[in-house]
Specification:
InterPro entries: Cyt_c-like_dom (IPR009056), Cyt_c-like_dom_sf (IPR036909), Cyt_c_1A/1B (IPR002327)
Strand content: under 5%
Helix content: 40-55%
CATH architecture: Orthogonal Bundle
Keywords: Electron transport, Heme, Iron, Metal-binding, Signal, Transport
Number of strands: 0
Radius of gyration: 17 Å
Low-confidence stretches: 6-24
Largest sheet: none
CATH topology: Cytochrome Bc1 Complex, Chain D, domain 2
Organism: Nitrospirillum amazonense
Structural class: mainly alpha
CATH superfamily: Cytochrome c-like domain
Shape: globular
GO molecular function, one term: electron transfer activity
CATH class: Mainly Alpha
Protein name: Cytochrome c
Length: 126
């Protein structure tokens, strides 16, 4: 019986961690809130409150260019993305390379840990 308990624990740990290397590393939302200060210059976390960039409230899982009341670039309107954690990770690495012509002038978050953390924070904004 002990052996079954051990393998059940191992399986649960693998499932909880996103399995063997195929998912993003889990970020720290509290650390991500600190990293987000770089984003807060242009983006609000309040629903319906747009700044230079659109509100990021509820961005995880949202279709690109759909925040109400924000005037998106033609490039972003044509991007047709769903802001999953994986897609956000790619985009936040180099926004202008992923969506050429975007209005977003931010050069990106080059550090994987910073991206993981800010995405974990964005996931809390629901």
């Amino acid at each position: 019986m002990r052996r079954i308990g051990f393998w059940a624990a191992v399986t649960a740990t693998i499932i909880a961690s996103g399995s063997a290397g195929t998912a993003l590393a889990a970020g720290d939302a509290a650390a991500g809130q600190v990293v987000f200060k770089k984003c807060a210059v242009c983006h609000s976390i309040d629903a319906g409150v747009n700044k230079v960039g659109p509100s990021l409230h509820g961005v995880v899982g949202r279709k690109s260019a759909t925040a109400p009341g924000y005037d998106y670039s033609a490039a972003m309107k044509g991007a047709n993305k769903e802001w999953t954690a994986k897609e956000l990770d790619t985009y936040l690495t180099d926004p202008r390379a992923v969506v050429p012509g975007t209005k977003m002038v931010f050069v990106g978050l080059k550090d994987q840990k910073d991206r993981d953390n800010v995405i974990a924070y964005l996931e809390t904004l629901k």
